[in-house]
């Protein structure tokens, strides 16, 4: 079955589609996503042990 995908892939695609749709409806949602990504990156860069645990 070359055309099968995992449940995780289905969830990922669905989540991405919902996020894109929500960003169109609520433009500041995209800003929040960027802020969260920036904070997460800063925390991981400043905490190598935490980054290793992930």
From TrEMBL:
Source organism, top-level taxon: Bacteria
MF (Gene Ontology): dioxygenase activity
Keywords: Dioxygenase, Iron, Oxidoreductase
Keyword check for Iron: yes
Cofactor: Fe(2+)
Enzyme class: oxidoreductase
EC number assigned by the record: 1.13.11.93
InterPro entries according to UniProt: HGLS (IPR009770)
Annotated family: Belongs to the 2-oxoadipate dioxygenase/decarboxylase family.
The name this protein goes by in its record: 2-oxoadipate dioxygenase/decarboxylase
Source organism of this protein record: Salmonella enterica subsp. enterica serovar Poona
